[in-house]
Amino acid sequence: MLQEPPAAAALHVDMRFPAAAVKADFPPQPPVLLLHGWASTSAYWEPLAAELLDAGWTVWIVDLPGYHRGDVLPLDFQWTLESAADSVAAVAARNAAPVHIAGHSMGGSVALTLAARHPGLVASVALIGMVPAPPNEGFKSMLESQLRQGFIDDATRAKCMKAWFGALSPEDNRLLSRGFELPFEVLGPSGLAAMAGVTADVPEKVTVPTLVIAGVGDRLRSLDQAEAFVAASPLRRLVAIPDAGHSVHWEQPQDCARALGAFWNESPQTPA
After folding, report:
1. Are 47 and 122 in contact (CB under 8 A)?
2. Strand partners, 237
3. Is residue 211 exposed (0-12), middle (13-18) or buried (19+ Cβ within 10 Å)?
4. CA end-to-end span of the chain, whole Å?
5. Distance between CA atoms of residues 72 and 95, nearest Å
6. Per residue in 123-171, pLDDT tens?
7. How far is the C-alpha of 245 from the C-alpha of 222, rounded, in Å?
8. Integer Cα distance of 220 and 131 in angstroms
9. Are 235 and 207 spatial neighbours (Cβ–Cβ below 8 Å)?
């Protein structure tokens, strides 16, 4: 019996365009889709988005299913990497040519899944703070216990924020932790999808250039894991950024933007 494809959700997309004066100095480029991680909001893309816009890139900031305040998911929607990828595919299909996809953490798993399932929509993939590898066991155990109890407690939330961002000002902590305020019916299943990661066959199905941007101090995905993943395919390359951990795009947005821009400029372009 054929299995029905997962239901897709309509996603909120914040489309941003470079200033006309800047844009005129650059050849037409496909938009860049930014996909956030688990229990995160699109707010943490702001520093990187500003750098990319200044460099002449068009940026589409995508909220994954259920992550935009007020989202109503289809009744038959089940939160998996596949259903999230199919939902993002509908966004990517709005552009006449393949788009660049950049995903952080769980968003990287969605990006890889999208490139494997819908190769005609994707020009390149960038993975930020993510490669397909077993998660940190301590972190996984802690999170699974929270998901089983049906809510994320304050202590776990604080541990997650520290692992993801390190030291934050009270204002930034309030801003960046808002993802934990989402309904548990979104947080729970998307958290399980994030920990399960992509299926073993997905990375080999991705046939576009793939960049891994790793923070040297990342406690959730080690530099060794990133190096092993990149070494397995000539399509993959690695940029390691010092003085950064899991959230390179927030901690070192200029270095992250430079690495992304160089990668996208080198990636083959498909005419619209």
Report:
1. no
2. 211
3. buried
4. 38
5. 25
6. 999 999 999 987 767 777 877 788 788 888 898 899 899 999 999 999 9
7. 9
8. 10
9. yes
